[in-house]
Amino acid sequence: MILPIYLYGQPVLRKPTEDIQPDTDLNIKELIDNMQETLTTAEGCGLAAPQVGLSIRLFVVDGTELKDEYPECADFKKAFLNPTIVEESDEKVTYSEGCLSLPGISENVVRPRTITIRYQDPDFNWHEDTLTDFQARIVQHEYDHLEAHVFTDRISPIRKQFVKGKLSNIAKGKTVSRYKYKR
Q: Does domain 5-182 match CATH 3.20.20.70?
């Protein structure tokens, strides 16, 4: 089922998220399937639970369509439950990012090139992965959503001034998107 993507201005995007317990009332596997379907339909590479209205520590990624440009993403499709970034490299890289919750905006964001993340899979088994380059960028972007941040929080003050009007238009409902969304 395709879920509506919550756009900038929705309070859930700025609300801290909570860990998911194995005894949750949510059907986690169905939610993950729905989020992956929503992500594919919206033509994104990552989607966090707050972007579909849930303040829980979950995001999905799918970088498989990017494999020609970013070979490390060839098999990069998975769900991250209760993630924590446990290590970041000192080396930083800059890349232009966009976000399904902020349609029509893209800006350069500086992030660590490599991260190590600890997380649970949909069966609540723990994993720890070290990710580099575009895999690391996708995960850091989605992880920010779990921490109540959006990528424009990480841009320079002058660039924030340039996008202020666009953000205001999204929050006021003056922006449209090609995918199902909620204002």
A: no
Type of residue found at 147 = E
Whole-prediction pTM: 0.96
Task: Give SS3 for 122.
Answer: coil
> Per-residue pLDDT tens for 84-96?
999 999 999 999 9
Distance CA 54, CA 141 (A): 17
Whether 142 sits among the annotated catalytic residues: the reply is: yes
Whether 35 contacts 4, CB under 8 Å: no
Question: How far is Cα 98 from Cα 104, in angstroms, rounded to an integer?
Answer: 8
Residues 6 or more apart whose Cβ sits within 8 Å of residue 36 = 47, 60, 62, 77, 79
Point out the catalytic residue in the list 37, 43, 128, 142. Answer: 142
Domain ranges of the chain: 5-182
